[in-house]
Structures are given as C-alpha cells and as structure tokens.
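[job 4471] stage=fold_predict status=RUNNING
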Amino acid sequence: MVLNSEGFDARAVYSGEEGVELARSIEFDFLVTGVVMPQMNGIDAAIQIRKLLPKCKILLVSGDNDTSALLHNAQSQGYRFEILAKPVHPLVLFQALRSVEP
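[job 4471] inference complete, writing structure tokens
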C-alpha cells in the first residue's frame, strides 16, 4: 500500500518462490524483498529473478543477523545487492528505490 501510494504499481507476494513465479509472467522493474524466509530465502529469489530480469532493480531489507552470511555467499557468486536494515522508513525506501542500480 505504501509503494502504491507513492505512484509505484506494487504487487505483494509472500514467498521467494512466488516472487520467482511472478517474474516468469511479468517483467517488473523493482524487487523489494526480505532476506530470511522459509524455504527459498530472499537472496536466492533475487538471484533467480536477476537471471530472468537482468534490468530489474533489487533492494533487500533485513533485520536478521544471518543476512551477512547469505550476502557473502551471493557475492562469492558475483551478485551484489543493495540492502536496508529493518525497520525501513517509507521515505528511505522511496529514496533507495530511485537510486538503486540494476
């Protein structure tokens, strides 16, 4: 709702798997995802979505200590993602989305 109120056409999904499935059917410009989730974590979902949508801007949000190990693993595979610490103020989120690189 917050993103939609700022003029984005945002859609919510509730798992990494759902995000990847959405990327197979819709070419979206931004992905905002949490990192620590059951089954497929947000970084693994972001990697799969980056493969499907190379121009998609990806922003991770996390408040979990396990995130650094997951990020390090992604970086060792050549993936770099922007990350914001939870809780994220909406204005910080909007600014980050406008500045993040694909």
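[job 4471] summary: The longest strand covers residues 57-62.
[job 4471] exit 0
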